[in-house]
Amino acid sequence: MREICELEEAIHYHFKNQFLIETALTHTSFANESKHAVKHNERLEFLGDSVLSIVVAEYLFTHNNMAEGDLTRMRASLVCETALFEFAKKIDLGSYLRLGRGEERGGGRNRPSVVSDAFEAVIAALYLDGGLETARTFILPFVTEAIAEHSAESDYKTKLQEIVQQNPEERLSYVVADESGPDHNKKFVVEVHLNSNCIGRGEGHSKKLAEQHAAKEALSLMGY
Predict the structure, then answer these.
(1) What are the Cα distances from residue 173, in Å, to 27, 186, 195?
(2) Which residues contact 223 (CB under 8 A, 6 or more apart)?
(3) What global pTM score does this model have?
(4) Mean pLDDT (whole number) for 116-120
């Protein structure tokens, strides 16, 4: 388990109340196994979920002219367990958690449900310690990067798909050619294949981003 000061360095914020961040990083399994009374992060998770939702909703409302249904779907994609787990991996949050022995042995540091819950708890700790603006400053870089990845992926992959679909017999597929690095800083290499031929190759810290870069290279080689 890494020191809290390292996490503070990673998120560019120093807690005035260290108890808040310590609680945010404490899983129920650790509290249950402790010989002394220890608070865990479930209540903070509850609050963090609400803070996250309002920050994301406000950002989407302010920066998009989407209809209500589209805003709802976009928000859901940004606050779901899968998205939060990806956000948390960017700061290696799992390595800072206080886990019980069983949860540790069971791979809790890399369990999406455990790590995404802790991410929400950290948001609550930031909100309580520094206010909404502090929480917003922490949240938005993850959100804007995810939106940018989604938009770019949609643009390049959709364009390539549209071109390929002009010939019904052609088949497009994305294949992970290589995967390296620790869980919190993975690097993927993806090839895009037209039938059995590789027509583009891309790298990224997520499969989606690598696919986007592969599609972009394929479009470039095709003259688009």
Answers:
(1) 40, 21, 8
(2) none
(3) 0.73
(4) 98
